[in-house]
Specification:
Layout lengths: L29 H19 L7 H18 L5 H13 L1 H7 L6 H13 L10
Helix pairs in contact: 1-2, 2-3, 3-5, 4-5
């Protein structure tokens, strides 16, 4: 859903949390944005693409590495970007995706629980 769309909008500028699929934040340092954050988003997109099934594991590994690099390189005070990258890498999204192919998803579930406890008011809480 595009921000300029009225579809699904509650109050001006607000969307129901269940309608949000993903958020991309502006990372201040262009070096981190270009070398880690945007490549992480692209690798995650490739991971989810059924046409790229043959490279699925490599794309996930690349996304996780790039999200870690982005998290380490964010400037202090980029709270929303930090929370989103943490969600993508450590919180709910990446660990749960890693668990899809593993017989024991307990570690991913514990990481989702930890994310929910650390960020109880985040928009990601619905999917976590």
């Amino acid at each position: 859903m595009k921000p300029d769309s009225d579809q699904g909008r509650g109050q001006e500028g607000r969307y129901p949390a269940a309608d949000i699929l993903d958020v991309v934040h502006e990372v201040r340092r262009s070096a981190i944005r270009l070398s880690a954050y945007r490549p992480a988003l692209a690798a995650e997109k490739d991971f989810l693409d059924p046409a790229k099934e043959a490279n699925r594991a490599a794309n996930l590994k690349d996304a996780i590495k790039k999200y870690k690099d982005a998290l380490a390189g964010l400037d202090p005070g980029q709270t929303f970007a930090q929370r989103q990258v943490e969600y993508k890498n450590r919180g709910a999204a990446q660990p749960s995706r890693r668990a899809m192919g593993k017989p024991k998803p307990e570690a991913a579930l514990l990481q989702m629980r930890d994310f929910k406890n650390k960020h109880p008011n985040s928009w990601q809480i619905t999917s976590a």
